Amino acid sequence: MGNEEAVFFSRLLTEMTLSFHIIYATIGVGVPLMIMLAQWVGIRKNDEHYILLARRWARGFVITVAVGVVTGTAIGLQLSLLWPNFMELAGQVIALPLFLETFAFFFEAIFLGIYLYTWDRFENQKKHLLLLVPVAVGAGMSAVFITIVNAFMNTPQGFDLVDGELVNISPLIAMLNPAMPTKVAHVVSTALMTSAFILAAIGAFRLLQGSNHIYHKKAVYLMVKVGLVFSIATALIGDFSGKYLAEYQPEKLAAAEWHFETAGNAPLILYGILDDGEVKYALEIPYALSILAHNDPTAEVIGLDQFPEDEIPPLYIHYFFDVMVTIGMFMVVLSAFYVVAKWRKWKLGNSRFILRLIVAGGPLSMIAIQAGWWMTEVGRQPWILRGIMRVDEAATSSGSVDIMVVAFALLYLILGVGSVVVLRRMFRNNPVEKELDKMEADRLAGETK
Amino acid sequence: MTLTLEIIGITVLWFFLFGYVIVGSIDFGAGFFNAYSLLTNRQHILTKIIQRYLSPVWEVTNVFLVFFFVGIIGFFPKTAFYYGTTLLVPASIAIILLAIRGSYYAFETYGSRGHKGYSFMYGAAGLLIPASLSVVLTISEGGFIDMIDGQPVLDYSRLFLSPLTWSIVVLAIAATLYISAVFLTWYADKAKDPEATKLLRKYALIWALPTMITATGIIVELRAHNPEHYANILDVWWAFLISGLMFAGTVYLLWTKRYYGWAFLLLVGQFFVAFFAYGWSHRPYLLYPYLTIYDSFTNEAMAIALIIAFIAGLGLLLPSLYLLLRLFLFNKDYVAGKKEDNHA
Ligand code: HDD
Ligand code: HEM
Ligand code: HEM
Fold this sequence. Notes:
A: mainly alpha; B: 344 residues; mainly alpha; 4 strands; binds CIS-heme D hydroxychlorin gamma-spirolactone; electron transport (chain A); Cytochrome ubiquinol oxidase subunit I (chain A)
């Protein structure tokens, strides 16, 4: 296998593993906080519906964590297996956050084990709830640290390059790179938003299926409220991310926006197709790109004309950007509408139509995550370390990457299908109604004793 | 010999690898015994004991491994080039086995009882994982990697035809089962389950001898394969002697059915001493003859940052690990199965 093929298959395998891992990782980051929230509301209001909500979510969470852990282990090893030259170079500067991430995992893993096996073991329920804090913190910190590594790939700093050797290395300055603040904030807030909408979607799905139980209504309302908060945060931070790009990675923003010529008063191009270098059927919002990039409708935005041909990222990232932003806006509007409708007791709020949209909101948010990552990772092309190392210089020279692509594709298929089947069976065999009845019976038995 | 950053780095990593060898072995071996008892219709004896121990800790086991491979790239980035390039196939096989095993464990335990076939797959994977991971140790002895056009290339036929490879594979499997059986004997005894104790004690005694024979055999084979390493091993013969005495102690206690807790501690001691003596004699090579801990080491700023992070992290981890062990391993009621229904 020639180097070109090795590069191609290494990219394919990396894309596949990361895109699969991110599904479970997103849930892993967001759901502990939602469990915490539900359990806390339950304890405060003394409402066993919320407690049961927390308990059932925790059960499902174990399954997604398991897949998150094994696919995370895969990507962790694959980074060295597929991109040895990159890891050898970058490892000298950015190993610190990767190393810190393992501590975050450790912390999370230990307390998750304890939390899961100590339901009802404490007299004071709040103590049990406290065990979730390290789980949520650990999961959040692993997202923070790994995103810092990715930010470094986009804006490497904290070293000097002298004759191909790295000198004057400062791990902390490498971590505090310009891409870090917006990237970390956006990733964490999208994980929380997506987890909330997925849990809301599950509740709405049960309501649509005919269960009219107040338990599901409480779940949907709580999660849509949380989702609203984080989808607004996501949109705001997304706007900051645009400003970051304009300053530090203008080629990525220009490619995502099909902004060919450097110019002021730049319009934002949404949708459309590219026909022989000409944009057709697009929606143009005047001045919006200048506003996104610099908060000033007349500001000049750097276009693709400023970059050598071979350093321009693929232009199809435009579509990823469209998908992400459209879904983001849609979710803000939908969740705001639902919350207002509930609050003002509008009938439309409980209609099947709105419930259907909420069901769609879960998968849509996950699609937005995928689109966002694909935009930012493909938008970094041809660099693996922007300005320093190209992707084709980084890949392995091994000749067996193609077989590994097939093997891992099978693995992810098995894991994906397996996790869905197990989750469905788990909740179908043990419906909420049955469990609530049992809780009620236990309580009565306790009172008569 | 001075305590350089290189030595501190590799010692930290070696500790975690040792941790993985012990907790991983317990886990892998337990899966095998479980499958085996299914096959011989003795499942009722073992399953409960095994699940009660494994359930709360399986994710922690995996982190030991992640810690090791992330740490080695951090402290010794050049390992990414040599091992990363050559290990693609064996390491990918190990990842896939780990992935299937880890996820099916969760699927079964928390989801729903599945097919018997999964238990067998699970048990078999538990033996194949140590086998495939141990190949890395074989490769590190040198003689299997050639430099072709400046790129390291692994020679599979030489690797698979070498007796060293197979001895190390056998050792990995035997040691896995031995470590696991000794631990579970103790655990079953604490759980006051005489039937399980009896069976596991038998397994422990069965696997004791093969472990010792292959370990000795490997040292003899190294004499031809890697004379330099062999000479270094002879220099620390006393450590292997101590290790051997501890082994005898474990077997003696098991044989006389006494102090299973001490038997397990002696076993940990035996492996600890041997593992570190082996690592010590391997020094300074990470990969004979291309890579030493000195020429692959990261820069000083990163090394110090990693060590500080490690110390700070340990301050967080040790109390948490202690809490975990206290709640599950050393809690009489939990071990004995009196507190069963606390699972979410
Ligand atoms: C639920 C998912 C989701 C939603 C609704 C949005 N995003 Fe996003 N976006 C992501 C999920 C995401 C992400 C997956 O988290 C990315 C990929 C890499 C990253 O740092 O975050 C991302 C990256 C990303 C970047 C590139 C940052 C970089 O390369 O450093 C920009 C400019 C935006 N987003 C802007 C927005 C805007 C203006 C949105 C308007 C609503 C928006 N995003 C909604
Ligand atoms: C190149 C990128 C990534 C690498 C190398 C990586 C590595 C890993 C590894 C090794 C694990 C398993 C740890 C264990 O044994 O417990 C893991 C799990 C996890 N990862 Fe990733 N990861 C990456 C991307 C991400 C991203 C982007 C996020 C968050 C947005 C994330 C969040 C998590 C979380 C929360 C877990 C814990 C398992 C869970 O709760 O689902 N990871 N990752
Ligand atoms: C530790 C952080 C990360 C590292 C070291 C890393 C590394 C890489 C590498 C080596 C590639 C292939 C080269 C390329 O095509 O550009 C790549 C591409 C990609 N990565 Fe990242 N990545 C990181 C974080 C992430 C995260 C967290 C995700 C989200 C899931 C992600 C998603 C992708 C995608 C979708 C591609 C495909 C881009 C393409 O086609 O070129 N990456 N990344």
